[in-house]
Design a protein that fits this description.
CATH architecture of the largest domain: 2-Layer Sandwich
Helix content: 25-40%
Number of strands: 12
Radius of gyration: 20 Å
Distance between the termini: 34 Å
Shape: globular
Low-confidence stretches: none
Strand content: 15-25%
Order of helices and strands: EHEHEEEHHHHHHEEHEEEEEHHH
Largest sheet: 5 strands, antiparallel
Mean pLDDT: 96
Number of helices: 12
Structural class: alpha+beta
CATH topology of the largest domain: Uridine Diphospho-n-acetylenolpyruvylglucosamine Reductase, domain 3
């Protein structure tokens, strides 16, 4: 049986109180939202905080509200289950779908948007029990000096596995953070960095407070496709977020295509996006555009053997899921047909 290490649990009732606890205890303290990822990681000995600061009773982190410009402000403690069905979030199918495909129904009732945005990178050599990792000699991300994914590699390549991250990137989201040095805002694109050890630009004692999304255009279309071993529970083997605006004539503008679970941060498929921009969806040649977009995305994406699942298979599924997700977005956010 895997046991949790000993720790003190605190339940502050304000954002200031939570930040004060994190500042006072420094590296010995960790915040907990839903705990669906942190608790298993603590059982595996990946994190051993002396104090766990629950964010459940912090009112500033709760709530979904429309902003003055017609966009949304979503509190970090909003559960994934409520996010997936919230009426205002339905205007952004890519985000609602991404939230609905995380883990299973029970975990979505507890897991939060903030927890998913802040999710630690994952690797099949890292997310193991302490005894397993010790027998292997550990790895770059935790306690060791060797990367088992890239032999001789000096940079951790654990993969970003948070489904909401590519969705929010495709929507141009902004993160509101608060810490000992005060409040700050950062675009979600700037927030993620290409470092598997810590792929988030988060400072000591800082908390994610809310996520802001700009208002969707009248012709907004978007969808999220997720490849995983089982139809629930599993982290993505590949995630594809697609969004664009469609004018009255059926021409695509403001296109975006972001893939995840391949590298330490979600990746924007820029050449594929360039092919989408200005494409006429009503013309006979649009099928060729879809094929070219899918091929361009495959050419850019090079999965590594960093998570379970054959990496060559995952690469071959890139054009499949890009095609399916693009078609679902054209169908006004209809479901992506998964394998």
């Amino acid at each position: 049986m895997l046991r949790l290490p000993e720790f003190t649990l605190t339940r502050p009732e304000s954002l200031d109180a939570a930040l004060a606890l994190l500042k006072e205890h420094g590296d010995a303290a960790l915040p907990i939202a839903g705990g669906t990822d942190l608790v298993p990681n603590m059982k595996h000995g990946l994190f051993e905080p002396k104090m766990v600061v629950s964010l459940a009773d912090v009112p500033e982190l709760h709530g979904v509200e429309e902003t003055a410009d017609g966009g949304l402000r979503i509190g970090a403690m909003t559960t994934l289950a409520s996010l997936a069905v919230h009426e205002s979030v339905q205007r952004y199918p890519v985000l609602a779908q991404a939230a609905s495909l995380i883990a299973g129904p029970q975990l979505r009732e507890v897991g939060t948007l903030g927890g998913n945005v802040m999710l630690d990178t994952r690797c099949q050599w890292y997310n193991q029990t302490y005894f397993w990792r010790k027998a292997l000699g550990y790895c770059l991300k935790k306690d060791g000096t060797e990367c088992h994914v890239v032999k001789g590699g000096k940079k951790c390549v654990a993969a970003a596995s948070n489904d909401t991250a590519p969705a929010l990137m495709s929507l141009g989201a902004v993160l509101e953070l608060a810490g000992p040095e005060g409040a700050r805002e950062v675009t979600i694109d700037e927030f993620y960095v290409a470092d598997g050890i810590v792929n988030r630009d988060v400072r000591q004692g800082e908390l994610l407070v809310a996520v802001r999304i700009p208002a969707p255009a009248a012709g907004h279309r978007s969808a999220y496709g997720k490849l995983r071993t089982r139809g629930s529970i599993d982290f993505p083997l590949l995630g594809v977020a697609c969004s664009f605006d469609l004018d009255a004539a059926g021409v695509i503008a403001n296109a975006d295509l972001v893939v995840t679970a391949l590298q330490a941060r979600p990746t924007r498929a820029r050449k594929a996006i360039a092919l989408l921009e200005g494409a006429d969806t009503s013309g006979e040649g649009f099928e060729a555009v879809i094929a070219a977009v899918a091929a361009a995305a495959r050419k850019q994406c090079h999965p590594l053997p960093n998570i379970p699942g054959d990496h060559e298979y995952r690469r071959e599924m890139v054009p499949v899921y890009v095609t399916r997700t693009l078609r679902a977005a054209l169908d006004e956010g209809g479901p992506v047909h998964h394998i």
